[in-house]
Amino acid sequence: FNDSGGEPEIYRFDTLGNILRTVVIRNAVNIDWEEIRQDDKGNFYICDFGNNDNERKNLRIYKIPNPTNLFNDTVDAEVIKFSYPDQKEFPPSKEKRNFDMESAFCYKDSIYLFSKNRTEPYSGFLRVYTLPAKAGDYTARLIDSIYIGTGPFFADWITSADISPDYKSFVLLSNNKFWLFKIKEGVPLTKSEYVEIFLPEISQKEGICYVTPDELYITDELYKQEGGKLYVISIKDFLAK
Length: 241
Fold this sequence. Notes:
Elements: E1 9-13, E2 19-25, E3 35-38, E4 44-48, E5 59-64, E6 74-75, E7 78-83, E8 100-107, E9 110-116, E10 125-132, E11 136-139, E12 141-147, H1 153-156, E13 160-163, E14 169-173, E15 177-182, E16 194-198, E17 205-212, E18 215-220, E19 230-234, H2 236-240
């Protein structure tokens, strides 16, 4: 999908970048789409929760059936509306601006959300929320926070997340690295052990996805003739440690 201001549609494409199909979500608006995820039943969740200025009150996640099972190229989505329990001002003061969101994954009947920290001065923490994975109007549940590091914030912004198909690990992505968390006892608690894995170069990386339990796809946005690529990385050695 395209970022903020794009059409309310998603694209199927191959690993060479050729667009094979476009599906339009009729009842959706692309204010700031930032993440797309899939649950274990095949449903897709398109996350319109980008919130750069920390002032949005119209956060949405659109849930649609797996497009592979659709006969048509248009669909109406179930709508998950939500707000944050700890946000009282729109926008809050700069030192409290931790309500931007670009990352989520589905686990069982819940959606896990990971904030993109925009605090000034930078605090180094991201917040973790959960939502029910069904249509409704909710107050998200704040379940935890993770200390990522001292910054700079461009290196520690969380721009995408995914959970492995075997539910044994999950990853959080930034512009020059990602964090690999090992899941204990089948629950993706943020207290799990993790390792920080640096990537060869900095770019505007915005998407990460498991292909298999030990292989990832990463994408970056095309910006000033840089990026616009699909990367493949094996994490087998890191999982073995």
